[in-house]
Amino acid sequence: MRRFYISFSLLTLISVIRGFGQDPQFSQFYSNPLYLAPSFAGATGGSRLCANFRDQWVALPATFMTYSFSYDHYFSPFNSGVGVLAYRDVAGTGDLGTFSLGIQYSYNLTIKRTVNVRPGLYFSYRETGLSFNQLKFVDQLMNQNPDAPSTFLPSSLDRARDVDLALSTLVYSKRIWAGTTVDHLLKPDVSLYADKETVPIKVSVYGGVELVRKGRLLKPVDETMTLAFLFKSQAHYNQLDLGVYWHKNPLVLGLWYRGIPPFNSDRGDAFVILLGYKTTYFNIGYSYDVTISNLIAHAIGSHEISVSYKFLMPRRKKRGSVPCPEF
Question: How many whole angstroms separate alpha carbon 265 and alpha carbon 272?
Answer without folding.
Answer: 17
